[in-house]
Amino acid sequence: MMRNHPPLNSGAALDVAVIGGGPSGLAAATALKESGTARVVVLEREAQAGGIPRHCGHPPFGMREFRRVLRGPTYAARLVERALRAGVEIHTGTSVVQVRPGGSLLVAVAKGVMEISARRIILATGVREMPRSARLISGVRAQGVLNTGALQSMVYLKNRRPFHRPVIVGSELVAFSAIMTSRHAGIRPVAMIEANARVTARWPSALYPRLSGVSLLTGTRLLEIHGERSVTGVTVAGPDGARRCIDCDGVVLSGRFTPESTLARCGHLEVDPATGGPIVDQWGRCSDPVYFAAGNLLRPVETAGWSWSEGRKCGQWVADDLAGRLPPLVSALDVKTHDPRLKYVMPQKIMLPPAGTGMVDLQLRVTRPVRGELVAVNGKGILWRQNIHALPERRVLVPIADMDCAGGAGTIQFEIREEIT
Amino acid sequence: MTLHQGNERIQSRQSTGDTVFDIIVIGGGVVGCAMARRFTLEGAHVALIEKAPDILDGASKANSAILHTGFDATPGSLELHCIREGYREYLDIYRALGLVHEKSGAHVVAWTDEEMDRLGQIRAQAHENGISDVAVIDRATLRKHEPNLSRHALGAVEVPGEGIIDPWSAPYVYLRQALANGAEVFLHREVTGGDFDGNAWRLHTTTGPVSGRLVVNCAGLFGDRVDHAVLGHSDFQITPRKGQFVVFDKAASKLVSSIILPVPSARTKGIVLFRTVFGNLAVGPTAEDQDSRTDASTKEEVLRTLIKDGIAKIPALEGMPVTATYAGLRPASEKKDYRIQVMAEKNWITVGGIRSTGLSGALGIARYVYGLYEKTGMTHTPLPDPALPKAAVLAEGAPRDWHAENHGEIVCHCELATRREIEAALSGPLAARSLAGLKRQTRVTMGRCQGFFCSARLAELTEGHFAVPMSEAIDDA
C-alpha cells in the first residue's frame, strides 16, 4: 500500500509535517494535499498508520467518512489509502522525540536520529486511557492490569490474550469495546464496574453487558487490586459502601482519556491542565503559531469520525494560514472555567466576532450530571446563556457566533448558574 | 585455600554438585551484587544465589535512587563508614562501567522556626562526618538555587555532594562485572538450609545444592530468615518498613534542580523530593512499619498525601499528572546501624539491616566485608586486569540506544526503549524473566502511558522468556 515517495532526510524542508497518523492526522494531511499544499508528510511512530482504529477490530467506524459501517482496521486502512492517493507521504516507524520553536523536529527512526523542519506542524497524537498509576489505585503492581487500548492491541494485532476473567472498570463507550474485544478473544469478563450511579455511555450500550453475560455493577468503586506476581482479585465498594472481593485474573482500566500531549508538555507549547492538551485558538493554533493541533489531542474524547472531521478542517485552516489568510493570534480572548462542575472548555482562545472560518463551537464537558443554566461571562457581563442538561463525557457545544461580542475584552469564564437539583 | 583463576568458568549453571566456590553470596540485591563484584575482583570464585527469577526483586527494586554523601549519618557508625567508602568508590568506577552520576546537590529545607534552629546542628554533624562543603544558606540564597520552592521555605543546609544515579543499572553492572570475571549466578533458587562440615558449606536450595567455603548472607528483607534456616538462629530481626512514592510527569523535573530534603526525624529522613536520572520528579518515601516482607502495595490516601506534600513544597506541581506510583520495603532491623557479623568458626558472614542507604553504601559494605574476610586469614590474588562490562545507558540526556543506528525500532515510546535494548535484556545470564525485571533493565512501560501503547508488542517480544508470561496465543486455547 505504501506509495513511492522521497525518503525523509535530515534537514528536509517540508510544507507541513503532521505528527500522528490516526484519523485526525490522516484527514488533516489529506485535506492539505487536496487544497494544493506541496510537501505534506505524516510522521507515525507505529509500524502502521491508522491510529487507534487499527486495533478496534469491531464496528462501527466510517459512517461519517465512507457512509458505511466498517470494522476499525478496515476503516484505518481506507483512511491511509485515501491519504496516499491524495499524495500524502506517510513515514511509519518514525518517532518525533522533540518539537522546537519555529517548527523544527527531532525525529528518531531505526537508522538513527535526524532533524527536519516544516513551515507548519500539526500535532495529532491522539489520546490514551489513564493508567493505573495516575488513578492512584491502591494495591500491588501485579501483572494483568491493562488499559483497553493495550487489550485491543494484544487481541486484534497480535492474536494474544493477557487473561481469562478480568474485571472491567468504567462504562464509557470504550468499556463496551473491552467487552467486544474480550468476547472475540474468548475472554470472559466477570464484571463491569462503574463508580457513578448510571452507565456513562449512551443507551443502548448499557444493555450490552447484560446481553453478553457480564454483570454490570453501578455505584461501585474499585478500592484495591490484589495479587503478587499476577492479579488474583479486586476489592470493590458497592452503592451502600459495603466492600466485597471479586476473584479475577486481570483488570481492564477503561476510559478516563488523556491527550497524549508529551511533545507539547515537554516542549515549548502551552498546555491546558483542564483538557490535558495544548492551548489552541479556534483554528487549532497553538501558543507557537507554527504549530496546530487536531483531533483528540485537543480534548478527551471524541469518536474517530469526529476526530477525522476536525482533522479535515484543521488541514484546511493550515492551508489558509500558509496562504496568509488567518488572522494573527494576538487579539484572541482567553476562555476558561473555574467551575468545578465543568471539566474543560476548548478552544481556550477565541476571536470575536468569529472570522468566518475556524471552529464553529466551543466544546465543554461536565464533571458530573448537571441540569441548570450554563453562562459565559466576562468583566462586562453575560456573553451567552442557555439551560443545559448534561452528563459526564457527553459533548456540550456552545456556538461561538452566538456569543455577544459587544461585551469587549477580558477573559471569558464559563460557569453553571441556577443549578436545578 | 585454593586459589582460582579469575576467569575460569567451571560449571554449567544448572549443576554445581562438584564445584566448591570460594564464596557464596545469598541475595541478588544491590548489596549482594556489589559483594559478588568485590570478592570476584579480589580473586575469589563467587556464586550468587537469588530466590526470584530476576535480581533486584526485594528491597533494591524501589528506592530514592540517591547517592548519599553520608552527611546526616550517625557519626562513627558503620553505616557512615560504608556510605563514605561506597560514595568514593562509585565516583572512581562509574565512568568505566558506563554508569551515570549527576551531582545535583541537596537542600535540607527548614519550613518552621524550630527547623531553622536545627540547621546549624545538621551542618555540624556533616562536618564531623567529613563532608566539609556543607553550609547553611539563607532564604534569599535558597530561592536563587530553587526558585520554584514554596515561599514558606525559610532556609536550608546545602549539601553539594549529594547526587542521583540509576538505581538498577548500577547493581546490574556490578554483578555483570563479577560474571564477566568468572562468578556464577543462580536465579530462581531459594536457600532452604545447609550443612557445614567444618571446612565448607553445602547450601540446600529449591533446585539442588550449591557448595562454597564461605557464605555471605545478603538476603536483605529475608536476612534473618536465611540465618534461621541455615544456622538455626539469628542475632537480629527484620522489621520491614514500607516507603511509598509518587513519580510526576517529566515536565515536572524542570521545577527542581537539587534534592529537597526535610529536616529529618530520629526515625526517618522524611519525605524527599528528588529528580531521577530518567528525567522524572518523584516524592517519597513514607515510613510505615509492617510485618509483610513482600507486600509493596500502595494506598490511594497515602499517595494523595504525598502529592499534597509535593505541592506544598513546589506549588507549581498543582495539577501535574502522575506517571507512576510504587512502594519499596526497607530491611530495617531493631537497631539503626548496619548489622554485619562474622561467624569465623562457621565460615559465615551476615550482612543485615541495610536499612535505607544500601544503594549508597553497597560498594563500601562490600569492601568492608572483604576486609573482615581477610582478617580471618583468607587471601586471594586480585585480578590483574578485570573485564569491564558497560551498563545499559538509560539516563535521559545521555546518548541512548535510540540515538544510534540499527536499534530495530522504538518499542516503548514514552521511555524510548528500543528493540535492540529489549533483546539484549532478554539474553545472557541475567536475562529478564519477568516484566518487572525487563522494566529495570530497559525502562519499558515505566513512562507516562504505562504500557498503553507498547504492551502488545512487548507481549510478543517476550514470548517464552518470562516465568509468568504477559499473554498467551489465542489459538492455544
Can you walk me through this structure?
- The complex is a heterodimer of chains A (421) and B (477).
- Chain A has helices at 23-34, 63-66, 72-86, 148-158, 173-184, 207-211, 262-266, 304-322; strands at residues 13-19, 40-43, 89-91, 95-100, 104-109, 112-123, 127-129, 138-139, 145-147, 160-161, 166-169, 191-194, 215-218, 221-227, 231-237, 243-247, 250-253, 257-259, 291-293, 333-337, 342-346, 349-350, 361-366, 370-378, 381-390, 396-399, 412-417.
- Chain A is of the alpha/beta class and 421 residues long.
- In chain A, strand 11 (166-169), helix 5 and strand 12 form a beta-alpha-beta unit.
- With 477 residues, chain B is α+β, with helices and mostly antiparallel strands.
- Chain B folds into 3 domains: 1-102 and 164-236 and 334-392, 3-Layer(bba) Sandwich (FAD/NAD(P)-binding domain); 103-163 and 239-330, D-Amino Acid Oxidase, Chain A, domain 2 (2-Layer Sandwich); 401-471, no CATH class.
- In chain B, 26% of the residues lie in helices and 21% in strands.
- Chain B has 11 helices and 22 strands.
- In chain B, strand 1 (20-26), helix 1 (30-41) and strand 2 (46-49) form a beta-alpha-beta unit.
- Mean pLDDT of chain B is 94; it is low at 1-15.
- The chains are: A alpha/beta (421), B alpha+beta (477).
- Chains A and B meet through strand 8, helix 4, strand 10 and helix 7 of A and helix 7, strand 17, helix 11 and strand 22 of B.
